[in-house]
Amino acid sequence: MAEFQVQRDALTQTRIVAERVTPDAPLAEGEVLVKVDLFAFTSNNMTYGQVGDQLAYWQFFPVAQSGWGVLPVWGFADVVATNAQGVEVGERLYGYFPPAQYLTLQPGRSGAGYLIDATPHRRKLPVGYNTYTRVLAEPHYDPANDAMRALLFPLFITSFCLWDALREAQWHGAQRIIMLSASSKTAIGLAYALAADDSAPEVVAVTSPRNVQMVQGLGVYSSVMTYDALAEVDADIPTVVVDMAGNGAVLGALHQRLGAQMLHCIQVGITHRAEVRDDGIDVGRSGFFFAPSHIERRMADWGTAGFAQRTNDFMRDATARCATWLKIREVAGVEGLSAVYADVASGTLPADEGIVVRM
């Protein structure tokens, strides 16, 4: 039993340590012990590390030793011991876990299809990350889809929220959306949502030359171009920019090219951490999109069950569409994660591939 940790100020430095939660540890009243079965690991997890201090990602599964931390992951776990009323051994949960085999939860508010962890150090953290889905209560749950769900649902929930926020803002008055890092899975999820919305503007995909064929083959973008062609972008069309990578040089060049026609810029990820700069970026018309805040607001608007129904319907449909092109690479345990970690951190994995860790 082991846990995968990273150095907080140098994410390329990693270690495998003895697991902090063991299966024979006694449970306090109200606690349950879960055993992690599988989880996905993507550039989204790297973003957690990049903004871990600002957005409290290190606080979900805190490490006592200074300088080290745990990158949270999304996946599935089974309840193997319980001292909490209403939670039974054998229940299967989908949600937020450490890259380790065991986790202790303290269920608070719950319903037939979900429970919310109320462990003291997590109570002030975003509820979207503390909510666990009781998947056995879902009428169409199929464990054969667990790997795809672990890989794509955490990304597609952001895709849904981006679409919802853009639609609510009436596309900021734009006639075009330019999607940077259009081969990223979050971008593709957003493109699926936009393609299904007749009120949405045209969507222009920007990607690297090696991903052009793959992005074109998706059939959801109005057109596809490469980064070296940004100087040819029509600067007379009112535009919203959605950036999935955080390359400041690219963003700055695009902002300067569009000028006043760049109506709004949404920054979603910062996977290109070595190139993060602010050269030429119009900060006044830019903003970092924090999906958990949008989730909390919509949960208040629609209720927990209503939010789950709307988002799960979209995510199931979008995930099914990915089955035609997405290849899952399964690795074994945190040792397997360690072997592929550098590829994920550097962004060198093929765009049509995803990593799932089987514990």
Question: Explain this structure to me?
Answer:
The protein is α/β, with parallel strands linked by helices. It has 2 domains: 172 residues, Medium-chain alcohol dehydrogenases, catalytic domain (Quinone Oxidoreductase, Chain A, domain 1), CATH 3.90.180.10; 137 residues, 3-Layer(aba) Sandwich (Rossmann fold), CATH 3.40.50.720. The protein is built from 8 helices and 18 strands. Strand 14, helix 6 and strand 15 form a beta-alpha-beta unit. About 2% of the residues have low confidence.
Broad shape: globular
As a percent range, the share of helical residues equals 25-40%
CATH architectural designation of the largest domain? Alpha-Beta Complex
pLDDT below 50 for ≥5 consecutive residues: which ranges? 271-277
Total DSSP helices:
8
Q: Between the first and last Cα atoms, what is the distance in angstroms?
A: 10 Å
> Which secondary-structure class do the elements indicate?
alpha/beta
Radius of gyration: 20 Å
State the CATH topology of the largest domain. Quinone Oxidoreductase, Chain A, domain 1
CATH level 4 superfamily of the largest domain: Medium-chain alcohol dehydrogenases, catalytic domain
Kindly give the count of domains: 2
| N-to-C series of helices and strands | EEEHEEEEEEHEHEHEHEEHEEHEHE
CATH class of the largest domain: Alpha Beta
Q: What is the overall pLDDT average?
A: 92
Largest sheet: 9 strands, mixed
